[in-house]
Design goal:
Helix content is 58%, strand content 20%. By secondary structure, the protein is an alpha+beta fold. The protein has two domains: 100 residues; 96 residues, Alpha-Beta Plaits, CATH 3.30.70.60. Strands 1-2-4-3 form a four-stranded antiparallel sheet. Strand 3 and strand 4 form a beta hairpin. The longest helix has 96 residues.
Length: 206
């Protein structure tokens, strides 16, 4: 066979084909090894960092929960602060309301107020009597009233001034009736005035 180029190609072609196939097999083995290595690293790496990921996730959730609690507390503090401001603004008014409509009959204070008005009007209080009240009865938030009878003495103008000044009393009271009567002493300008009234108070419902 002549030693021509085509003849030489035919003679060595199977060597080139074998080398090419061998090269492809080596490439396949290399790729397979790399892929398996990556899978192995990923598999063990996942289980190695999984506890850390769980811990981080838990910390993130805890931070979010605490942040929500802090926001709620801030809102409550803001509400309490505003309530304190509102209370400070109406505190003086509440004191007047409590004096006008106390949470119990508070008869001793009422007597002192009537005595003070009598002195200012130059009137003498002869007697004062309150009806019996049951403080152990049923409680409610509605206004209650205690009735009283008042006997005073003085001249007509003084008694009139005293009667008018009852409207300026801080305690809320009502006048049901009153009457004047002359003194037993002849030529005396002293009159007797009897008065029937009632004073209001509140009973707090428990």
């Amino acid at each position: 066979m002549p030693n021509t180029l085509p003849n030489r190609y035919q003679r060595y072609r199977h060597y080139f084909t074998g080398v090419n196939n061998l090269y492809k097999k080596k490439q396949t083995k290399v790729y397979t090894g790399v892929v398996l290595s990556l899978i192995t690293i990923s598999f063990f790496g996942f289980f190695a960092i999984r506890p850390t990921l769980i811990t981080i996730s838990g910390l993130i959730k805890e931070i979010k929960d605490k942040k929500a609690v802090v926001e709620q507390m801030d809102q409550k503090i803001e509400s309490l602060t505003q309530a304190q401001i509102n209370y400070s603004q109406i505190k003086d008014g509440l004191d007047l309301v409590n004096q006008s409509l106390p949470l119990d009959p508070d008869l001793s204070i009422l007597i002192k107020q009537l005595e003070a008005l009598a002195r200012l009007s130059s009137v003498k209080i002869e007697s004062i009597r309150f009806e019996k009240i049951n403080l152990q009865g049923e409680k409610s938030n509605e206004a209650q009233a205690v009735n009283f009878d008042l006997a005073t003495s003085g001249n007509y103008q003084s008694l009139k001034n005293f009667l008018n000044s009852l409207d300026n009393l801080r305690r809320i009271i009502g006048i049901d009736s009153f009457a004047f009567k002359a003194s037993n002493e002849e030529e005396s300008q002293v009159l007797m005035m009897t008065l029937n009234g009632h004073a209001y108070y509140l009973t707090r419902e428990e």
